[in-house]
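Worked example 3 (structure in, sequence out).
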């Protein structure tokens, strides 16, 4: 089930984006007849996975609620080159004013969903899950995590508040893995705890501490396989660091449960979409 983003947040993000783009007014749209009716078609110029329909629709809701949108597909659907994504009907001014902002949201989020689907398909049948990270575009974290879910990926922690992830610097400052875990259990008894380890010795220490989720950081395939054997099903294992499309299948086949991929949200390749307007 896709990650949920509140309508209030979508409204705020769209409002900010429109303010950024329109400023004191769309001086070019002012050249057009105010009530001229038009029909517009949004086409996909490539094979992709769609995400961001609510953001796209909210743009025109804020500019002119009378603009009608008829969707030919939904978030999470695969679209092909030259496929019609949606059609709009309304007055020309709000349509041309909102075009870029609406497409920016749809292209960017579809880009995240499309990349995610490629990675998910790459490891199909292995039993491993593709996870996102906190390496997101500022201000669009929840939107991008939603897009990841549209692409078939799974969501890691949302931020610094909903899961304890103990990393190298935390361990150093706390004194040891065990001390860090004990403190985490005392301060955040209701939150899941994950510990990042860099070698098999740290993995063994973390297992002895009774942690149920462990992040294996930048380990070779050989070490990952050894970690899975040492773990023997006691904790859920997540591989992270240096994951690419070319090597993710090999990583998944080591037997880890999760593979986190920063590229899903960090290296965004927007989907090529275009809008074409015609007179009614």
């Amino acid at each position: 089930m896709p990650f949920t983003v509140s309508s209030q947040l979508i409204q705020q993000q769209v409002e900010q984006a429109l303010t950024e783009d329109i400023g004191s007014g769309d001086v070019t749209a002012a050249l057009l007849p105010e009530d001229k009716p038009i029909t517009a078609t949004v086409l996909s110029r490539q094979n992709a996975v769609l995400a961001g329909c609510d953001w796209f629709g909210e743009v025109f809701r804020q500019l002119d609620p009378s603009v009608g949108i008829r969707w030919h597909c939904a978030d999470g659907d695969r679209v092909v080159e030259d496929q019609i994504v949606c059609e709009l009907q309304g007055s020309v001014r709000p349509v041309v004013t909102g075009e870029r902002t609406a497409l920016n949201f749809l292209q960017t989020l579809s880009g995240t969903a499309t990349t995610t689907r490629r990675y998910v398909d790459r490891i199909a049948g292995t039993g491993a899950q593709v996870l996102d990270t906190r390496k997101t575009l500022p201000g669009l974290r929840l939107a991008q995590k939603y897009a990841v879910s549209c692409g078939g990926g799974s969501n890691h922690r949302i931020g610094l508040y909903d899961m304890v992830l103990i990393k190298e610097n935390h361990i150093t400052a706390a004194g040891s893995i065990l001390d860090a875990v004990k403190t985490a259990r005392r301060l955040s008894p209701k939150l899941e705890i994950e510990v990042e380890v860099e070698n098999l010795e740290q993995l063994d220490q973390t297992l002895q501490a009774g942690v149920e989720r462990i992040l294996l950081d930048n380990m070779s395939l050989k070490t990952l396989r050894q970690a899975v054997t040492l773990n023997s099903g006691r904790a859920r294992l997540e591989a992270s660091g240096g994951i690419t499309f070319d090597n993710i299948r090999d990583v998944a086949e080591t037997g880890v449960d999760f593979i986190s991929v920063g590229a899903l949200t960090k290296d965004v390749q927007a989907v090529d979409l275009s809008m074409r307007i015609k007179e009614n």
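Notes: The first strand starts at residue 37 and ends at 44. Residues 213 and 236 are 5 Å apart (CA to CA).
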